[in-house]
Amino acid sequence: MRNGAGDTGQAEDDSSTERTNDEVSELKQQIEDVRKELEKQTAAAKEYLDAARRIQAEFDNHKKRIQREREEFVRSANEKLIYELLPILDDFERALSASCSSEELETGICQIHDNLVSLLKSYGLEEIPSKGKFDPQYHEALCTGEGDDGDILEVYQKGYFLGPRVLRHTKVKVGKQVGRGVSNDENNRN
Fold first, then answer.
1. Which of 53, 55, 62, 138 is the most buried if burial means most Cβ atoms within 10 Å?
2. How far is 107 from 97, CA to CA, in rounded Å?
3. Across the beta sheet with 170-176, what order do the strands follow?
4. Which candidate, 49, 122, 132, 30, places its Cα nearest to that of 85?
5. Roughly how many angstroms between the first and final C-alpha of the chain, as a whole number?
6. What is the Cα–Cα distance from 171 to 142, expressed in whole angstroms?
7. By CB neighbour count within 10 A (0-12 exposed, 13-18 middle, 19+ buried), where does 174 fall?
8. Considering Cα of 56, then 62, then 68, then 71, what sign does the dihedral take?
């Protein structure tokens, strides 16, 4: 009987060893599968990183190209404006070298001024109105004087719009009402 019981124990040990070997084989297969998946994911991550770097480089190149184009546009616009200002410069030089009466000189200078204003208007320059009430969006108060509160009393320097933007604020003197004596309430307190 002992031999029969021993054979059963041996069979159980063999069966247990076989199960353990199967489990080890299965775990090795799982490890191999995980390793293959890790390699696959690592390769995908490298591809994504390379794509991101290419996109970043393309974006940087795009920004540089846009900046170059903007600079070229500004140069071209400046060149056009300066070219159109040259005849006015020529007119000033002719006026300075002309021998004429003061009235003729004044007439010539007024014509040059009108030509310059016309050219600047063609580029969208407009004078900021300076009549009426002070508006801090368009006017810069340099000082105050006696007058109705908020009224523009004097213009020191004209202001201009370039399109919808304020290019330069109008520098003005603003009215401020001065007290007209002491009120009855203040007299009663003293």
1. 138
2. 15
3. 139-146, 170-176, 152-157
4. 122
5. 132
6. 6
7. buried
8. negative
Domains of the chain: 1-123 (3.90.20), 126-180 (2.30.22.10)
User: How far apart are alpha carbons 166 and 148 in whole angstroms?
Assistant: 26
- Output the six-digit token pair for 15: 């069966």
pLDDT digits (tens, 9 = 90+) for 83-100: 999 999 999 999 888 888
**What's the pTM value of the predicted model, to 2 decimals?**
0.57
The sign of the CA dihedral 26, 29, 35, 38 is: negative
3-class secondary structure, 108: helix
Q: Which two tokens stand for residue 127?
A: 């004078």
